[in-house]
Amino acid sequence: MKALIPAGGAGTRLRPITHTSAKQLIPIANKPVIFYVLESIAAAGITEVGIVVGDTAEEIERAIGDGSDWGLKVTYLPQEAPLGLAHTVLIAREFLGDDDFVMYLGDNFLIGGITDLVEQFRAERPAAQIMLTKVADPRAFGVAELDVEGRLIGLEEKPEHPKSDLALVGVFLFTAAVHPIVAGLAPSARGELEISHAIAGLMNTGQPVVTTITEGYWKDTGNVADILEVNRLVLEGLEPEVAGTVHDSELIGRVTVAPGAVVRGSRIVGPVIIGAGSVVEDSYLGPFTSVAEDCRIVDSELEYSVVLGGSVIRGVGRIEASLIGREVEVTPAPRLPRAHRLLLGDHSRTQICAYS
Questions:
Q1: Which CATH class is domain 237-352?
Q2: Which residues, 6+ apart, have CB-to-CB distance to 44 below 8 Å?
Q3: pLDDT tens, position by position, 166-182
Q4: Does residue 341 sit in helix, strand or coil?
Q5: 331, 295 in Cβ contact below 8 A?
Q6: Is pLDDT larger for residue 81 or for residue 355?
Q7: Under DSSP, is residue 50 helix (H, G, I), strand (E, B) or coil?
Q8: Domain ranges across the chain
Q9: pTM for the whole thing?
């Protein structure tokens, strides 16, 4: 079995972050979300991985390399435009050959991995196996319709009037039977080759499609709220470790200070992770906060937020529920807006007011 990771999407819901950075590399607890995908694939015993890349190919290739850090052999598959998940299968045809494969979306996060799912598929080998989960608003997802006995009878892609609350999770398993179906697909009204249409095509030709409803945790990390929620969940399992330097500070609960990081005159209430080379001085970091490498947090308060590498936050009051990009500088403004809620792209500069 091989693995196929679509990682070429534009990430429009995360702009301006994704104007300059791949959404699959946004860190969760200081580790890019696609790294969790690679770990799950390796744990399932799969070693050959194709990663479909687009405009951010260079950045993704630089981060992942040849895959050897995970015991994987990675092949990069260029996609000229994000033309749908079924299109990624189409362009990966030569790489996949006649092997079974798992498609795992590069910006999805699934607690518990995929090992059990892969083992079930290997044992039963239906034409396709899909994962479903209940969601509050299924209009943003592919939606499955089941009959009274729980069998799949229909699929819709982002319907305006969903027939169920069961969304397709971003993990799919296929045999080579899917390839002729994909080859015959026409673009949808969205101009894409839809994976839901490929699955429907298998059903229409009488080939078995198996569903698994997961009760576990799954998120499509395509927006800020979901990134912060996944970050919170991962930090819940954080093991405290102080490898950096701490001076005149109070560390409470699960706090990780990476090698080369410095905490001085501050109060840190975990779970919190502070990346290598970062400095936290005269500040408060509250629960569920991730500060990446080489950041500087001075005379500020930060809680339930994610800060990417190289950013500076200095002299501001309280920041909550924020995603702050790389090389961002946040400093006091001359006036007094007293509440801050931020989504800042890479290399942004903004002025906000510190509390008096």
A1: mainly beta
A2: 102, 113, 114, 115, 117, 118, 119
A3: 988 889 999 999 999 99
A4: coil
A5: no
A6: 81
A7: strand
A8: 2-226, 237-352
A9: 0.88
